């Protein structure tokens, strides 16, 4: 199992290319199952979650071809078969194949998914969205079994919360339903807007992208399409935090400021300078970070996927910060590992009080999930001495060549294969 060895103290300086968004790529790959016509996707990141999703749709019969620039998916021979749990257990996003298979074939049997252990993340909202369109849904022996013998019928779906995954499931199912569907309390994340753009290129008629109310015409006439995925705002935010925590300067090539308004607002409160550049966004760190209070919220609020990275920054701030996690109940599992590096963090339910210290000291640490992994990388970049991070396969799920990108900007970091 690979490790990362980091010797902290180097100031980062350079340009970092921001890869395509993993969380946009996964539903777009699933959407290819909706249509017998080919879908070409560009700007997909080379991360293990994307590779696993491509593997899953191939097991359903999709033909996948990939080179350095594009991924072509031909789902004309897909059948609504069954993929075993061992294949889908690695990530929760595997549930996204449920709606396309049900909508296209009138039936689907999909294993309950796995993923990071950061909270319950129930699939109830996905299943209720399908039921609202006339599907019969049950859970049998660890599998979701859904059927709509006469096809799905358009209707009104009211989500109890703006869940990204449930919105994506509802969108894909509604594209196949007879008649118009209204989705209320829909998620507004850029990844949802990008899925709508992809579905529209494939032939769907959808109004309201970027709002809480979506209207889908249904009865989609599918056509061959191509789509270029958006850059990864979480990756961009992570490298912005890397510049800040090391007092460095990074150009985030391809990053979009409009996707990171809440993140950049907090960074500026912490003393970091940010401005648009010719190729993206430039981030310049401060000599000593200021504290800041953060509450994770659905978009356009502060993203839960950047909470751990900002906790690493807060551990070195000149004062105390309060971080409130409102999305996932178990997303503080990185706190004990930050404590091994000397961070002073007190937990009280969903709230973390982080008392900044002048320095952290390197130590062996263990990654527990994707974002916790990169939080430890950031802390290691700023810590005195050597930090060794174990179980870095979590990092490979969502960050393309993280260690190489950091090394090119001056980090002393190496991957060790064991």
Strand element count: 23
Alpha-carbon Rg, integer? 21 Å
- What CATH calls the topology of the largest domain is UDP-n-acetylglucosamine1-carboxyvinyl-transferase, Chain
Proportion of helical residues: 25-40%
Q: Shape, please?
A: elongated
State the CATH class of the largest domain: Alpha Beta
- The CATH architecture term of the largest domain is Alpha-beta prism
Give the terminus-to-terminus CA distance. Answer: 5 Å
Q: Strand arrangement, largest sheet?
A: 21-22-1-23
Report the biggest beta sheet as strand number plus sense, adding barrel if it closes.
4 strands, mixed
Low-confidence stretches: 115-121
Quaternary state reads: single chain
Strand content: 15-25%
Count of separate structural domains: 2
